[in-house]
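pasting for the record
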Amino acid sequence: MEKVEKTNKESHSPLSFLKNLLIARWRSLLLLLIGVYLPLQIFEILTVKIWENQAGFPWDVPILLAVHSTANPQLNVLAVTLAIIGLPWTAIPILGAIALILLLQKHWRSLAYLLTASVGSVIINRTAKQLMHRVRPHLWQSIAPEYSFAFPSAHAMTSITVVVILLFLTWDSSRRWLVLIFGSLYIIAIGWCRLYLGVHFPSDVLAGWMVALGWTIGVSLIIKPYKTKAKSLDGDRPDDETTLLPEERELITKE
C-alpha cells in the first residue's frame, strides 16, 4: 500500500511530469530542432553574410566554375528541361490538382496544410528577394538567363515545398518512401540545374532549401496534416479531416 502511494506521489512531482512530457513529445521536439530551428539558423547566417557582402561566400564562385566546367550539349538540354519543370508556375497545376482531390475527398486539414505551406513559401520568396536585392552571377553567358533577383532561389524553394508537402500527405502510407527517395533526387537535380545554368550562386540555392524546409515543417507542426485516423472498415472518412482537434476548439473558445 505504501509503495503504491509512493508511486502515485512521484507521478505527480514536477520532475516526473517533465520526464513524461519529454518522453511523449520527443519526436515533435526533435522535428522542431532539426526541421525548423537548424534550417532557419543556416538561412539567417547566409542572409546576414550576403546582406553585409553581396559577393557572398568564398566558395560560391569556385563551385559555380566547377559545375560549368562539365558543360556539354546533352547536359544543356537536361538543365533547361529541369529549369522548366522546376518553375514555380509549373508547380501550380500539380498542387492545384492535389488540392482539388483533397477538397473532393473532404481532407480539409491536409488541404489547409497544402495551401498554407505553398502560398507562404511564395510570399517568403518574393519578400526575401525584394529585401536582399542580390544580383545574379554573370560569370558566363547563360543559355537560360534570368533577370529577377537571386536570393533565395525560387526553384530551390519550390522543389523543397512540393516534396515536403507530398511527404506529409503520404506520411501514413508506404508511398512516403518513394516520395522521399525520388523527391530528394528531384530537389538535388533542380539545385544542380540552377548552378549549371549560372543563374544562381550556391548560397542562393542553399538558402532556398533551408527557409522552405523550415517553413513547411513548421507549418506542419501547427496544422498537423498527419493527425488523421485510419479509415474504418465501412469506409467512413477520418473525423480529424473535417473537424477541429480538441485543443484547436479550446483555443477558439478562449479567443
